[in-house]
Amino acid sequence: MSGQYLKAKRGNMGQFYVASMLEAGMLKRSDPLPLLDEGFGQDLARSFGSSIGSTADILLEGIEVGTVDRAALLEIGRDAHPACLPLESDEWSLLKSYLLGERLQFDQGARSRRSSAWLRLELLDRGIGTRDERPLRRAFYAREAPDGSPIDITGTTIDGWRAYQANEYGHVALECLLNGMVSLLPEFGGATSPATVIAALLEQALDEDARAQSWDAWARSLTEADEDDLAEPILRAIAQGAAGDEAIWQAALKLLAVLWVRWGNSQLGVLHEISRGAGPTGRSLAGVLQALTAASNSDVAGALLSVLQRHIVAEHMAIAGQKLAGSGTFTYHFLLADGEMSEGQLGKYTYTTPRLQNLTRFMGDAGLHAAEKVTAEGRRFLDAYQAH
User: Does one domain contain both 190 and 251?
Assistant: First the structure.
């Protein structure tokens, strides 16, 4: 499926990873391999077989024998492709039931999926298109519509997406600062201590007066700054794997400061939501802001030095090490040996809400929206679950 996942003209809601199938109750856990659930999973398998007719026999034979010839592959590709999902079939109805979270008692993610679908469809109805990434961010985070009017939706779902967005802003800032640190290593012959390169970055990004202020005073002087305005130039730079410059690094530092002022006291439960989703390790915006709170009486340079050493250098090494050990994937952007950073590599990063993007595509496949408008079917869904 490489290069094809979720790219069919329609029918993408019929594509699943094993983890999603377990969560949805299509499969049941078993050792060593998951087994088909006798209820929903079996119904879905039968409906798929009915949809593809005699091609099901070819698939089963291929599974049993272990080989498939070219002619069989062509037939499978023609009949089993997601875009061939028959409209209004039993398979279609079962997949749509899954998508809209109608099996609450069996499906672990049904409630959040249904409420996220409702929220995204409601925002589309308010003028935020399926590809409108920045307006969607503002809707979730600032609760502001494209015309500047407030978005009055409340509830755990939109609160969860606000927490996701806040964490994403933090990630964007740290990725930018990591690229900045890597870009400065050549000034020290390609290797130096983390403290030295962080100090060099701070010296270039912030003037002496700013560095000498207390973290608390400096951060609170930035309360009028807008997170999305700060993030936009950062995203443009790191999406290209660029090192950035003093202005970009300063924007990243200011973004951390504004996030700390906004959410550092656990206002509106954002830190709790982030911690709940990220786990207890502190590897999230919650951990960064808690560390900044602990250092808030220090000067700006001292507070950032301690926080960036932990949340960029130490956490990067720990996470990259876990990925290498767990999957053999090499994700290091620098090496650390004898107390010195070296072998720096710039990284790319883009803002992403993959689950929401996929859900939006699925809803289009299911006929809930078309041509950037909510359909009659989508309107019925919005009306039916308005109180949810």
Answer: yes
